[in-house]
Amino acid sequence: MILRHPEPDQIRIDGVLSALGNPVRLAAVAVLDAGGKHNCSSVLTVLGVTSKSTMTHHWRVLRESGVIWQWPSGRENLLSLRREDLDARYPGLLDAILAGTRRDQEAARDHEPQPAGR
């Protein structure tokens, strides 16, 4: 299986922003931001996603936009964030997006209805 990955100078801001504009893909990138190599199944488990076919599409979008590396390893694919390439191409972009995501998640938790006390 040959997977298409753009060269660092082929990564485009519109592709990166479009890829990260989807909540599932953004959540996957947040998981990968912890560093290291992850297999697809472990990321699916963290995200709580059960449809591998849906995630296949999301992995392709992230890979072809230059956000992730994806390569076969046995019966699975391994994934890693292209942090170095993205930081070199668009300094601070990924940090800003992930920080904004964390703030949005915190704000959503702060506004969740609290159960009534006894």
Main traits of this protein?
6 helices, 118 residues, Arc Repressor Mutant, subunit A, mainly alpha, globular, 3 strands, three-stranded antiparallel beta sheet, single chain
Any overview of this molecule?
By secondary structure, this protein is mostly helical. The protein has one domain: Arc Repressor Mutant, subunit A, CATH 1.10.10. The protein is about 55% helix and about 10% strand. It contains 6 helices and 3 strands. It has a 3-stranded antiparallel β-sheet with strand order 1-3-2. A hairpin with a 2-residue loop joins strand 2 and strand 3. Helix 1 runs antiparallel to helix 4 and helix 2 crosses helix 3. The longest helix is centred in the C-terminal third of the chain and has 18 residues. The protein is globular and about 55 Å long.
Question: How is the topology of this model organized?
Answer:
Layout: H1 13-20, H2 23-32, E1 38-39, H3 40-47, H4 52-65, E2 68-73, E3 76-81, H5 83-89, H6 93-110
Antiparallel strand pairs: 1-3, 2-3
Helix pairs in contact: 1-4, 2-3
